[in-house]
Amino acid sequence: MPKISVEIPQELLDDLDDHVGDDGKFVNRSDAIRASIRKNLDILDEIDDRHDRLEADDQ
Fold this sequence. Notes:
Elements: H1 10-17, H2 29-50
């Protein structure tokens, strides 16, 4: 799996960390970020679909 690097404001990182760990929804930051990216891409696909911006192969 490729690795990437991003700069994240401390406030967002603190919020993310609230959801990671033994008491959180995610095992680690990477899992949380992957889930967030997937969810965001799903939302964008739904918006594109409503506006007929998806190609037939993407649906």
